[in-house]
């Protein structure tokens, strides 16, 4: 995670942090996410697709992903007493697809394991796996939040400078 | 769309190609849209299949290509696929997170001209325009000449043979065939008009609907397949507006299809056992457009997806399949991986999604074969003969996709998973010299050879030139991976015992030995083992869990299961390997714990050059089987007969290992010819520069 001072700084929208410093922070964050396995190569595709003509692409996709993921997780958290394995599997399959499209590696891997349990009709395994997926998802989501904040600030900076 | 605009956009084709993307997953759809735009296509998206159909029905000419997800809430992707194919006859590409063979097979059956795995990447989408061109070109031609369909057919086959760069290749093939057909054409009056101009208007073409085809098949059967002539078929069918040419070309396709079916029948089972790994390149091969009608009719699952396989001599797989109980699952991987760039027909094997062996499938496979045979009218042996000839590398004997008996390889369906798993296993236990050879495939899939038990290697890494006792255990697993593309060992962690190589490809051949003995002697090829040991090169996926390998002769890529006296004439084609780019560094092979475990076999690497540290010094153009050979301790049942062939000294590795005097060929031969009983490693010039045996023995 970011060092404490950065976190504090981030909370101040108009902090004097330079554009360069912001960029550096963002890079470091993203790199750390790659290294820790939160993100994989696919995320690079997203980064590649962001350009002048679509400056908010990464943010857009991340937001879409988070919305969708949380929707699915909510559904999965319901009705834990009786598990409809097929239904659960379908949801997890969805989540796996979207997480893999985004490059959310850990989440994707957790989904894969989750599906194993579904296939085995293993209720406890499923419940467990759900927790694992959530764990990884929220971890990722936190970092995504920071990432997007940084990006926003960087872009604000840029547009400010242009004005 | 004004004519000028459409003409113009078509002139710049593929720029401006109009794609309709359908996916209920908003993230994927958005991503797809962005990627397609980046390819400069004209993109329309919808998250509902029904909307998509509506759009398409409104105006058939509005789109050039459809990309659709398989799993959609309102309509099954396959259904959409069929409908689009029937009604609009547009090329449809399927998209799915599920890369299992069955799923891919289904896609092909239903007529998809390609099947991509999610997450989809830019590189893959860049090439999809070729589907449009191909379809256009050959549709037009088939209206005009009896050979048109055949060309289309062959071009599809050609395409399937080389997923990525097919356009040029198939273009050439088509041109060649077209020339031939022009010469042979009977109906010379049916000149090919405007065939070459893709921007010409679409001519009304006959859509071979299910009904029509059924009539056709009935007529053909009535007349007798061999005796059926277009004119008579036409009469029997009694359909308006059907011309003799239509029937003729359809008949040609049908005949080819039947041929493939019978050849494929035997492979069907093996393919079924293939692992649906994530390897787009493999999926690219499945492009049997013309056959989809047949498939619809046929109903059988025996899709000639393997038609190309047949041509590649996979027909022979039946024989080894029937007799074997040990296979080299990894061998399939090899095929897949290595020959991508080579003209080696084995190339196509690699295209088969995850052809790997699964122990528990063996029985199924065997059963599948005779059944398949019964179903087909064509004599199997004949086809196999043909097929045989096509496989110079003798891969036919390889246990490709033949159900490996007792080994159950967990299928790794996700390469990244493998990578991930691999990485997670990375502990530096001594194997710092390992580098994973990367296959220079366009799909950028890696074979990650995860040499396990690295920690034990250090003890073995004494390259005195002889591995006596080092790999003398009864359990060897030689990784036949080397045959595949060059492997760069990076971060090969000592990992778990029993896991030799993780292949990060769609061929997750995973075998993990329960025993952790880890004599992983690389270059098993050089190891003549005593009756006990079996050198096996194993591809182990990161996911692998130790299977019951100990019970059975560890499969080796080269199917060198000691016990089975397989006579495989596998001739490794080093050329294929060499094409696999020299960028790969030699994996560092380690022999683990040689002293401890390898008592049974005497793998003698007499080459004094075996120098762990000299990895990479030898420039292997080819992946070097040796590199990936891990000699694992096998259970007592396993007997690898490393006969004289393993004498690396007698061979000379093709590229790079010259100094070693070993050829890849020899290594492979060594691996694959277990029948000889002499283990003559005495003077092996292993040339183990490749081996990163800590200390060569």
From TrEMBL, chain A:
Domain HPt: 54-157
Keyword Lyase (UniProt): no
A biological process from GO: phosphorelay signal transduction system
Broad class of where this protein is predominantly found: cytoplasm
Localization terms from the record: Cytoplasm, Cytosol; Nucleus
Protein keywords: Cytokinin signaling pathway, Cytoplasm, Nucleus, Phosphoprotein, Two-component regulatory system
GO cellular component: cytosol; nucleus
GO-annotated molecular function: histidine phosphotransfer kinase activity; protein histidine kinase binding
Sites of Phosphohistidine modification: 93
Matching Pfam families: Hpt
Domain notes: Histidine-containing phosphotransfer domain (HPt) contains an active histidine that mediates the phosphotransfer.
Its job: Functions as a two-component phosphorelay mediators between cytokinin sensor histidine kinases and response regulators (B-type ARRs). Plays an important role in propagating cytokinin signal transduction through the multistep His-to-Asp phosphorelay. Functions as a positive regulator of the cytokinin signaling pathway. May play a regulatory role in salt and drought tolerance during plant development.
Identification of the protein by name: Histidine-containing phosphotransfer protein
TrEMBL record, chain B:
Subcellular location: Nucleus
InterPro entries: ARR-like, CheY-like_superfamily, Homeodomain-like_sf, Myb_dom, Myb_dom_plants, Response_reg_B-typ_pln, SANT/Myb, Sig_transdc_resp-reg_receiver
Modified residues (4-aspartylphosphate): 69
Composition bias, Basic and acidic residues: 141-153
Ranges of residues in domain HTH myb-type: 200-259
A molecular function GO annotation: DNA binding
PROSITE patterns per record: HTH_MYB (PS51294), RESPONSE_REGULATORY (PS50110)
GO BP term, pick one: phosphorelay signal transduction system
Start-end of Acidic residues biased regions: 182-197
UniProt keyword list: Activator, DNA-binding, Nucleus, Phosphoprotein, Transcription, Transcription regulation, Two-component regulatory system
Domain Response regulatory: 18-133
GO cellular component terms, semicolon-separated: nucleus
Main location group: nucleus
Segments for region (Disordered): 141-203
Pfam families noted in UniProt: Myb_DNA-binding (PF00249), Response_reg (PF00072)
Designated name of the protein: Response regulator
Organism: Musa troglodytarum
């Amino acid at each position: 995670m970011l060092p404490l001072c950065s976190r504090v700084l981030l909370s101040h929208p108009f902090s004097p942090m330079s554009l360069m410093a912001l960029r550096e922070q963002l890079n470091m964050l993203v790199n750390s996410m790659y290294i820790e396995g939160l993100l994989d190569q696919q995320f690079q595709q997203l980064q590649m697709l962001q350009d002048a003509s679509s400056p908010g692409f990464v943010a857009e996709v991340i937001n879409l992903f988070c919305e969708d993921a949380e929707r699915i997780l909510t559904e999965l958290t319901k009705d834990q007493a009786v598990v409809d394995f097929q239904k659960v599997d379908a949801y997890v399959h969805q989540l796996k697809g979207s997480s893999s499209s985004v490059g959310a590696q850990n989440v994707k891997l957790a989904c894969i394991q989750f599906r194993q349990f579904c296939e085995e009709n293993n209720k406890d395994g499923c419940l467990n796996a759900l927790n694992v997926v959530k764990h990884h998802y929220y971890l990722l989501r936190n970092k995504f939040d920071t990432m997007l904040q940084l990006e926003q600030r960087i872009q604000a900076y840029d547009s400010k400078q242009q004005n | 769309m004004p004519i000028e605009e459409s003409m113009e956009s078509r002139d710049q084709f593929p720029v401006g190609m109009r794609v309709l993307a359908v996916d209920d997953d908003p993230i994927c759809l958005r991503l797809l849209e962005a990627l397609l735009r980046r390819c400069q296509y004209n993109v329309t998206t919808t998250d509902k299949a029904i909307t998509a159909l509506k759009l398409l029905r409104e105006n058939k000419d509005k789109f050039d290509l459809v990309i659709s997800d398989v799993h959609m809430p309102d309509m099954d992707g396959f259904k959409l696929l069929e409908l689009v194919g029937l009604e609009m006859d547009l090329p449809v590409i399927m998209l799915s997170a599920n890369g299992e063979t069955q799923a891919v097979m289904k896609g092909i059956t239903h007529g998809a001209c390609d099947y991509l795995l999610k997450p989809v990447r830019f590189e893959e989408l860049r090439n999809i325009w070729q589907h449009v061109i191909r379809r256009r070109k050959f549709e037009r031609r088939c209206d005009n000449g009896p050979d048109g369909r055949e060309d289309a057919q062959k071009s599809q086959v050609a395409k399937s043979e080389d997923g990525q760069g097919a356009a040029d290749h198939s273009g050439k093939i088509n041109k060649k065939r077209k020339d031939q057909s022009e010469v042979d054409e009977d109906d010379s009056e049916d000149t090919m008009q405007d065939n070459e101009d893709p921007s010409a208007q679409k001519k009304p073409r006959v859509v071979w609907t299910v009904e029509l085809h059924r009539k056709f098949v009935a007529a053909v059967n009535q007349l007798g397949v061999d005796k059926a002539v277009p004119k008579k078929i036409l009469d029997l069918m009694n359909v308006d507006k059907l011309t003799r040419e239509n029937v003729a070309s359809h008949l040609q396709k049908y005949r080819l299809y039947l041929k493939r079916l019978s050849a494929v029948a035997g492979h069907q089972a093996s393919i079924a056992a293939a692992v649906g790994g994530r390897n787009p390149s493999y999926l690219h091969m499945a492009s049997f457009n013309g056959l989809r009608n047949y498939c619809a009719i046929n109903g059988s699952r025996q899709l000639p997806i393997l038609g190309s396989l047949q041509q590649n001599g996979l027909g022979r797989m039946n024989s080894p399949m029937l007799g074997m109980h040990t296979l080299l699952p990894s061998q399939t991987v090899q095929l897949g991986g290595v020959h991508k760039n080579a003209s080696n027909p084995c190339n196509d094997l690699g295209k088969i999604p995850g052809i790997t062996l699964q122990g528990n499938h063996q029985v199924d496979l065997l059963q599948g074969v005779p059944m398949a045979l019964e179903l087909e009218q064509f004599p199997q042996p004949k086809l196999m003969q043909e097929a045989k000839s096509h496989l110079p590398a003798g891969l036919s004997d390889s246990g490709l996709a033949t159900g490996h008996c007792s080994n159950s390889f967990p299928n790794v369906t996700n390469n990244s998973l493998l990578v991930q798993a691999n990485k997670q296993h990375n502990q530096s236990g001594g194997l710092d010299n390992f580098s994973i050879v990367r296959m220079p495939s366009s799909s950028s899939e890696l074979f990650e050879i995860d040499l396990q038990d690295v920690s034990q290697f250090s003890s073995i890494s004494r390259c005195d030139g002889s591995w006596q006792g080092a790999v003398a255990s009864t359990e060897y697993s030689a990784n036949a991976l080397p045959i595949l593309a060059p492997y760069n060992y990076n971060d090969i962690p000592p990992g778990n015992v029993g896991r030799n190589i993780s292949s990060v490809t769609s061929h997750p051949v995973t075998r993990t030995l329960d025993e952790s003995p880890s004599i992983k002697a690389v270059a098993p090829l050089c190891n003549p083992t005593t009756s006990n040991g079996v050198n096996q090169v194993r591809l182990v996926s990161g996911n692998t869990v130790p299977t019951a390998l100990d019970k059975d002769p560890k499969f080796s890529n080269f199917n060198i299961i000691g016990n089975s006296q397989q006579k495989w004439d596998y001739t490794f084609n080093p050329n294929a390997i060499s094409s696999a780019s020299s960028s790969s560094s030699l994996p560092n092979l380690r022999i683990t714990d040689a002293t401890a475990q390898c008592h049974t076999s005497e793998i003698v690497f007499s080459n004094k050059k075996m120098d762990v540290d000299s990895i990479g010094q030898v420039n292997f153009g080819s992946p070097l089987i040796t590199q990936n050979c891990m000699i694992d301790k096998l259970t007592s049942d396993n007997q690898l007969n490393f006969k004289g062939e393993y004498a690396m000294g007698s061979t000379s590795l093709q590229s790079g290992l010259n100094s070693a005097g070993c050829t890849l060929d020899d290594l492979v031969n060594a691996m694959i010819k277990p029948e000889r009983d002499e283990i003559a490693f005495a003077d092996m010039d292993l040339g183990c520069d490749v081996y990163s045996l800590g200390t060569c023995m």
